[in-house]
């Protein structure tokens, strides 16, 4: 294992942060898929479960490397957002948005689609592997030319540079409260499904795009755009990108983290990156659903959140999910599910203001929505 430190731009005098990455194996030692895997956790710095999963995964990868089992490279970044993890307001950690800019740490990654298309247009051929090499080189060169102007921009760039040549990218997050679930691009589900199955994932949300360029979208979108732009050229469904929401922010335990790390490790064995016999592949507990079918229930009034159904409840359209009690007026506002499906996430807080998120239901029917992700 090699350790690398990646300095961020200093935001002010006398302070300097960096991101630490751990590197196992060597890239594409056998030329199979995946030759390089990139895994990070804590991009939303208040979402802790992934950090403990990475801690256990690091030990497993260290052992596998010592046993000579790695057929490719794994880059692991257990704490990928040192800015967010240092933020607190009145003793409460704030890890989703950067204080300085107000921006979500997981939005606005670079997706230089026009420039990338221009640079590779004349060289794309009929050999998919050569096209992959060409596109990766061009993408890497484009990122190398970027001059970030803030600490946050330099953080985004560091993470993109480490992952832009990976075949597979796994981004570990968590919900406020929730069941384990994954987000993946529809065209890449074939590659991702085994991970969801090893994780016994009850909710798999698929989409062609997410909007506002979160990290995972920035990984696959350049390739998706090139495929649309050059339909007569074989362009692979790279880079495969999956975001895993490791239940709720409070679901932090060694027992669970070891189980999740083992699932990820088993997946890497199954995919051939680590030699050995793959563990039997469990069935997917619940079919995939479109991200466009995920319904976010928003509080229409303020009050105490009562009668909130637990995550994992199957609901029908029109079922009552919660009640919002105004303790001053005594008014009790029922909250109904707008769709049938699995209640897979809910608020950690039991007092909501008008406009706050109450819960999410994974419906099977796509609906037209202005934005697919929350703020
Ligand atoms: Zn997150």
Write a structural description.
- It is a single chain.
- This protein has helices spanning 49-66, 113-120, 128-145, 151-163, 189-198, 215-229, 254-270; strands at residues 2-7, 18-25, 36-41, 73-77, 88-89, 92-93, 168-175, 177-178, 181-185, 203-207, 240-248, 289-290, 294-298, 303-306, 314-315, 320-325, 332-336, 341-346, 351-352, 357-363.
- With 375 residues, the chain is an alpha+beta fold.
- It has two domains: 2-270, Zn peptidases (Aminopeptidase), CATH 3.40.630; 289-363, OB fold (Dihydrolipoamide Acetyltransferase, E2P), CATH 2.40.50.
- The strands form four sheets. The chain has a nine-stranded mixed beta sheet with strand order 1-2-4-3-7-11-9-10-12, sandwiched between helices. Strands 8, 13, 15, 18 and 20 form a five-stranded antiparallel beta sheet that branches.
- A hairpin with a 6-residue loop joins strand 16 (320-325) and strand 17.
- The longest helix is centred in the N-terminal third of the chain and has 18 residues, at 49-66.
- Zinc ion binds next to loops.
């Amino acid at each position: 294992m090699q350790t690398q430190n990646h300095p961020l731009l200093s935001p002010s005098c006398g302070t300097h942060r960096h991101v630490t990455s751990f590197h196992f194996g060597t890239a594409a030692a056998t030329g199979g898929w995946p030759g390089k895997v990139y895994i990070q956790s804590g991009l939303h710095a208040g979402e802790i479960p992934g950090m403990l999963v990475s801690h256990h995964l690091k030990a497993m990868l260290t052992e596998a490397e010592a046993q000579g089992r790695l057929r490719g490279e794994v880059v692991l970044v257990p704490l990928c957002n040192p800015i967010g993890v240092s933020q607190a307001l009145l003793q409460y950690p704030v890890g989703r948005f950067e204080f300085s800019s107000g921006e979500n740490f997981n939005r606005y990654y670079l997706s230089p689609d026009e420039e990338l298309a221009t640079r590779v247009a004349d060289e794309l051929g009929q050999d998919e592997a050569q096209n992959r090499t060409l596109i990766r080189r061009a993408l890497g060169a484009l990122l190398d030319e970027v001059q970030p102007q803030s600490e946050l921009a330099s953080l985004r760039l560091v993470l993109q540079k480490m992952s832009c040549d990976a075949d597979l990218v796994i981004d570990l997050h968590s919900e406020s409260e929730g069941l384990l679930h994954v987000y993946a691009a529809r065209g890449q589900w074939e590659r991702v499904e085994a991970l969801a199955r090893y994780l016994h994932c009850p909710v798999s949300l698929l989409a062609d795009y997410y909007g506002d360029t979160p990290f995972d979208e920035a990984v696959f979108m350049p390739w998706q755009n090139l495929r649309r732009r050059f339909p007569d050229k074989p362009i692979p469904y790279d880079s495969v990108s999956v975001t895993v929401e490791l239940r709720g922010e409070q679901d932090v335990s060694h027992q669970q983290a070891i189980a999740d790390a083992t699932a990820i490790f088993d997946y890497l064995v199954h995919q051939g990156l680590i030699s050995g016999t793959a563990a039997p592949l469990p069935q997917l507990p619940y079919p995939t659903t479109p991200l466009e079918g995920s319904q976010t229930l928003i509080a229409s009034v303020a009050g105490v959140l009562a009668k909130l159904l637990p995550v994992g409840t199957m609901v029908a359209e029109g079922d009552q999910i919660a009640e919002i009690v105004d303790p001053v007026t005594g008014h009790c506002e029922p909250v109904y599910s707008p769709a049938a499906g699995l209640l897979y996430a809910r608020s950690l807080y039991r007092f909501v203001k008008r406009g706050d998120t109450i819960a999410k239901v994974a419906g099977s029917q796509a609906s037209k929505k202005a934005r697919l992700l929350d703020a």
